[in-house]
Amino acid sequence: MTGAAPRALRVPYVIAHADEGAPQRLRFARRPFGGLRLAYDNPRRSDLVRGVLRARVLNNRQGAPQWRKLNTLRQWRCMERNLCQVCGLDATDPITGRIPWITTATAFRAIPDVSNSGYTSAPATCLACIPESLGMCPQLHVSSAVYTVARSEPAAVLADMFSPGPGGRAVHTGEHNVLVGLNEPALLRSALATQLIVRIEDMRPLKVT
Q1: Residue 63 pLDDT > 70, yes or no?
Q2: Does residue 2 register a pLDDT over 80?
């Protein structure tokens, strides 16, 4: 008698796939009231979100999973709508109204002098998907904690930084994953956002069984 076949690893909703890349043809364009701002050669209204230029990606979930990379559109959607990063559904507990969240040392930063609050680039995880996430994600074995939070609010982005080159061409500065606050317009003008960061508040430890 043969044993049961191992369960296939589910690819989380937020993970990027190999065929979701998009051209990033960038330049610095002069704004109507002066000053330069990073833009695409063929700008679209959807490029600017919350005052920052967002990196273009496809949203087809085609190609091999890129386990160490998040799809910018789906990550952003999860953060703005409190969707589960694994299944893509609403992560808010319908009974308590609170949002379950797994934090890690690499994706969470506590706010000094503000108790039970912090910044994170990792989306929420619904109660149904937490056991699977903790059991199957190697990164969560290293350092993770599970909380419920009362609310989340967009606060910053992780971005690649650019500077103007000859003819307005955008030149990458070599800086990746730079934390830029949504209240820093001078920096946002030179930033290409790849992930949205939210502030989570009223964090309470959640015991996972």
Answers
A1: yes
A2: no
Q: How many domains does the chain have?
A: 1
Assess if residue 159 is contained within a domain.
no
The band of 5, judged by pLDDT with boundaries at 50, 70 and 90, is very low
Please return the burial class of 174, using the count of CB atoms within 10 Å of its CB with bins 0-12, 13-18 and 19+: exposed
| 74 is a domain residue | yes
**Is residue 37 situated within a structural domain?**
yes
User: HSE-up of 46 (CA within 13 Å, CB side)?
Assistant: 5
Q: Using one digit for the tens of pLDDT, what is the confidence trace for 114-168?
A: 889 999 999 999 999 999 888 776 565 555 899 999 999 999 999 999 999 998 8
In the block, tokens 């209240």 appear at 183
How deeply is 169 buried, as exposed, middle or buried, from its count of CB atoms within 10 A (0-12, 13-18, 19+)? Answer: middle
**Is the Cβ–Cβ distance between 60 and 21 less than 8 Å?**
no
Boundaries of domain holding 60: 15-154+199-205
Is position 109 within any domain? Answer: yes
